[in-house]
Amino acid sequence: MGTSTSRTRTTIASAWCFASVLAGCGAPAVVPADYERTYQEVRDCRRSGDHDLNFIRVLTDPAAFEAYQQRDRAFPLNAVVMKVEYADQDCTDVAGFTAMKKLETGAATEGGDWQWQKLDGRRRVLEDGQPPGCVGCHRPCQGGTQGHDWTCTEP
Ligand code: HEC
Fold it and tell me: Would you say 142 and 112 are in contact if contact means Cβ atoms under 8 Å apart?
């Protein structure tokens, strides 16, 4: 029974990948499976000021935490900031994720030297790299009152 279940899963995954060749299918997910245990919440459950879904939380990995909270320094290499999107106002029903991972300085200056990723509710990568939508919308959030190092959520 275990075998047939995993065979079914593999078939579904490759069918999905085939349909999504355009979008960065195959890129490893920036968001780890155990994010609730290893990441910290930096912005609690709230209505989104943007994106398609209504309710969000923002979490960071340990490397990103200080820069996200203090907003007085750039994010270090490999720091991850992610937004969990929910279908309900209590933030229990996960609908998907967006994530940003800091690259080396100069690696992708057009997108703030971040890797941008959109994932579905099961952490499958739907978009990856420098999608123009992510980059264009986050560009005003580089500093000042608008945001910090391309992050947009108000404290
Ligand atoms: C239409 C504008 C818009 C687009 C497109 C957009 N974002 Fe955002 N993003 C925002 C805003 C505004 C916030 C602040 C939180 C909120 O209100 O949802 C945010 C928050 C985030 C956060 C939480 C960290 C922070 O404070 O900024 C991440 C991570 C993120 N976006 C990643 C992405 C990725 C990846 C994409 C592309 C797949 C993307 N965004 C596309 C506007 C946008």
Answer: yes
Q: Which of 122, 136, 138 is nearest to 81 (CA)?
A: 138
- CA 152 to ligand 1: nearest atom: 27
Distance CA 136, CA 55 (A): 22
What number does the ligand 1 atom closest to the CA of 126 have? 38
- Ligand 1, pocket residues at CB < 6 Å: 48-51, 56, 58, 81-83, 98-100, 116-118, 127, 131, 133-134, 137-138, 151-153
Under the banding of pLDDT at 50, 70 and 90, the label for residue 20 is very low
Q: Both tokens of residue 109?
A: 């200056």
pLDDT of 142 higher than 60: yes
Residue 126 contacts by C-beta under 8 Å, 6 or more apart in sequence? 20, 23, 24, 118, 119, 120
